[in-house]
Specification:
This protein is an alpha+beta fold and 189 residues long. The protein contains four helices and 13 strands.
């Protein structure tokens, strides 16, 4: 019988994350890449981001982002150090080098479910990520389900009591993006 060999695994850093050519997040010192999304989730996220961008332009309040912008946060209890939401809204300082990640959490984050984001394990991962968002300072997180055509709005002040928006309704991101709304039918058109 041979003696066990200890293998030292180096902790990956934000600098390593900046060199990744894929959507990824830094969690517990390792880079976690995410699969590319399909047609429907991508269209849904784009419609939301476009609505947020129109709002930002008209109110001159905050910044809207589409998929894959990196938000760097101080290491959270879970070990997470970054987010890359599907769409987001940010109120805060932009980086002095605009080619870099944003330092701080998004004010509003949108997570659109992809093909593999269903089932017990996926639900647990989504719930844990929402708690990470709230710990980092995000005020509202949407869980957008393109199959059920439903948006669940989670607020940092009531993280376990989502508000559901269904077809025919109007969704909002209050209090994170006060005054902004979008028709649910438009999101899932």
């Amino acid at each position: 019988m041979s003696a066990a060999t200890k293998i030292k695994i180096d902790r990956q850093t934000l600098a390593d994350l900046a060199r990744i050519d894929a959507k990824a997040e830094l969690i517990n010192g390792r880079i976690v890449t995410q699969m590319p999304t399909g047609y429907l989730p991508s269209r849904v996220a784009f419609r939301i981001a476009r609505g947020l961008d129109d709002f930002a332009d008209s109110t001159r309040t905050g910044y809207a982002f589409g998929d894959n912008v990196g938000f760097i946060v101080p290491r959270l209890r879970s070990g997470r150090e970054s987010f890359a939401p599907d769409a987001s809204f940010y109120i805060g300082a932009i980086p002095s080098n605009p080619m870099r990640f944003i330092e701080g959490a998004p004010t509003f984050a949108v997570e659109v479910r992809s093909e593999n984001d269903y089932g017990t394990s996926a639900e647990a991962e989504a719930a844990a990520k929402r708690l990470d968002y709230f710990e980092a300072g995000t005020r509202v997180v949407w869980d957008v389900d393109p199959i059920l055509k439903r948006i669940l709005k989670y607020r940092s002040d009531s993280p376990l009591a989502p508000i559901a928006f269904a077809p025919g309704g109007i969704a909002d991101a209050d209090p994170a993006v006060a005054g902004w709304t979008i028709e649910v039918d438009r999101v899932f058109a």
